[in-house]
Amino acid sequence: MSFFTDKQTLDDLNITGRYKNNSITFLFDQVITTGGIRLLEHMFRQPLTDPAEINKRSDIFKRFTAYPSALPFSAEEFVVLEDYLGARGSLNRAEVIKNAISKKALQVVAQDEAYSLFNSGIISTIKLLIRFRDFIDTLETDEGLLREQLIALKDIFRLQKLQKVLNVPAAKELPLFKMIKYDYLLRCVLKKEMEKIIESIFQFDVYTAVAAVARDHHFCYATALPKARNVLNIQGLYHPTVEKAVGNTITLNQENNVLFLTGANMAGKSTLMKSMGIAVYLAHMGFPVAAEAMEFSVRDGLYTSINMSDNIGLGYSHFYAEVLRVKKVATDVAADKDLVVIFDELFKGTNVKDAYDATLAITEAFSENRNCFFMISTHITEVGEILRERCNNFRFTYLPTIMQGLRPRYTYRLTEGITMDRHGMTIIRNEGILDLLQVEAAPRTPGN
């Protein structure tokens, strides 16, 4: 079973979209092959729920982070290899000969370029195969998780038929008979082996690209634990696309499975919640996360409600959209699914009294499922005081605001407790909005 989420969550966290500025996919999109792109997108679409598989994948990335490597060719060079090996060929030697002679004849008679292009395609492919063979030889086969893959690749490169192709002197152009021979071997006799090599290139493309991102951004690799351990510990958590971000520690378990977050506007609540959601998602992919250290029990899925909007087409108000969102999550929680749930300011689309009552009732009801982890923020701090009296499984935290005269300063440091910080009117006054509205109109003069 794969880790599940939905479009709202992916949009809230800005996960998908390799051409979308500041998306998490964009951040990791350092691959150079089309197959690498497809593999990377597949990993983003299907996070894992098996801790062994997660740890296996992250350990491979970790190996390439510790020992930097890069594919020994450019994207443009690889396209030549992929186009040549992927071109439709025949398993019949006679047809291979006929095709090559036909190209040669057209070159002589009509100065057609097909023969030269085909010839250079074979030569370029041979050069790149040699480079990839040498790249594989630099990787130690005693690396446990890569051992089987590396041994299989080295066995392919040791095949006598492939050796005949790779151990030939470099040339700008191959004679016709050699071109026929090498084409038949590469695209016909060794077709399956070439497919395995190309697939491995795609994989190593992703390995090296993800590792480079982790190394450049100083990300860490999370340790996945069995679901029954029921823990989520993240030290030094920060948002991966925010420069000079402040790190915070998040600790949740069965005894304290709800993090209740308060703080003034602009104190950093939404960014912290997005940081946690992104870390949970990437950790289930086996990818590096923006933190100093992380361990987590695998969950079934992740839901967020951060940037909810109305739906004019369906006639939904903002409040009703929030209600439907909560209902969706409640349905899965009631179905005994182990989730990570992140709610930013529940029911802000309704009046204060209804928001108070609904936030209190829904938060308390959700918290009874100890196998789910909840992160819930609100400006209605009175709800927190009631929950502190009623519930023993909450961790109450806030992001503080320090007033320097009339100017607020935000530490972005998570602090234990519930804050009563409310500085909205201070900010409004600092911007001079009330002064603008209270300016007396100039006296009218006759004729104006």
Automatic annotation (TrEMBL):
InterPro entries in UniProt: DNA_mismatch_repair_MutS_C, DNA_mismatch_repair_MutS_sf, MutS, P-loop_NTPase
Keywords for this protein: ATP-binding, DNA-binding, Nucleotide-binding
Keyword Chaperone: no
Domain DNA mismatch repair proteins mutS family: 256-447
GO biological process: mismatch repair
GO molecular function, one term: ATP-dependent DNA damage sensor activity
Gene3D superfamilies reported for this sequence: 1.10.1420.10, P-loop containing nucleotide triphosphate hydrolases
Record protein name field: DNA mismatch repair protein
Organism: Mucilaginibacter ginsenosidivorax
